[in-house]
Amino acid sequence: MIGDGGLAPAVLAGCAAGAAMLAVRRHDRAVVSRIPPPRHSAERPTWPGTAIEAVGRTAWIRRITRVEVSRVRLEAAPVHLGLDRYAGMKAVSALAFMVVALFAPSPVPLLAPVLAAGAFLIPDLVLARMARRRRARMEAQLPQFLDLLAAGSTAGLSALLALRRAAESVRDPLAGELHLLLERVDLGARWRDELHAMAERLHLGDLRRA
C-alpha cells in the first residue's frame, strides 16, 4: 500500500500530464511535412517526452485511442502534437487520476474508474470541438474564396495565380491553410493534388465539389 510519500509523485504526475496537454504549440506544418527531420540532432529528447511517446506507441493504447480519428482531429484543430505523444499523454493522465483517486479519502476511490475515463476521453472531446469550430469558420469563408477564384480565372489569370490572389483576400483559418498549401506548391507539389488533399483532410464538401 502506498503512503503519503507515494501519493505526492502521483499527484505531480497528474499535474505534469495536464500541463503538457495545455502546452501545445503550432509550427510551420508545410515545411515540416515536406522536409524530413535530421537523423542526428544535437538536442536530445527529454526522458519524460520519450517515455510518454513509448506509452503512446503501445498497441493497445493506440487501439483504444483510435489513432486514425485522433490524427484527423489533430490536423483539423490544428494542434501540432505527435500522435504517439498525444496517445501517451492521455494514457498517463488517466493513470495519474486513477492512482490519485484510489488513495484519496472515501468515497473518492469509488469514482476512480470514472475519473480515469474522463481524463482519457476529455482531450478527444476538446479536440473534436476545436476541429468542428475551425471547420465551420472555413466553410463560412469558402463561398467568398470560390467567387474570388472564379473572378481571377475570368480575368485571364492562370489557375495558380488566381489561387494565390484568392488566398490573399480571405481570412484565417482558411487563409492559413491556403498559405500552407501554396508553400507546399513552392516546394514542388502540384497545386491540384494539394487542393484536393486539403479538401479531403478538412472535410470541406463545397471545396471538394468545386
Notable traits:
210 residues; mainly alpha; 74% helix; elongated; disordered N terminus
Q: In words, what does this structure look like?
A:
This protein is elongated. 74% of the residues lie in helices and 0% in strands. It is mostly helical and 210 residues long.
Shape: elongated
The run of helices and strands is: HHHHHHHHHHH
Structural class: mainly alpha
**Biggest sheet features:** none
Determine the mean pLDDT: 76
Helix content: over 70%
Number of strands: 0
Strand content: under 5%
Computed over alpha carbons, the radius of gyration is 22 Å
Number of helical elements: 11
Low-confidence stretches: 1-43
User: Cα distance, first to last residue?
Assistant: 63 Å
Task: Present the secondary structure layout.
Elements (H helix, E strand, L loop, with lengths): L3 H19 L6 H6 L12 H10 L2 H7 L1 H10 L6 H20 L9 H43 L4 H10 L5 H13 L4 H12 L2 H5 L1
Short description:
This protein has 210 residues and is mainly α.
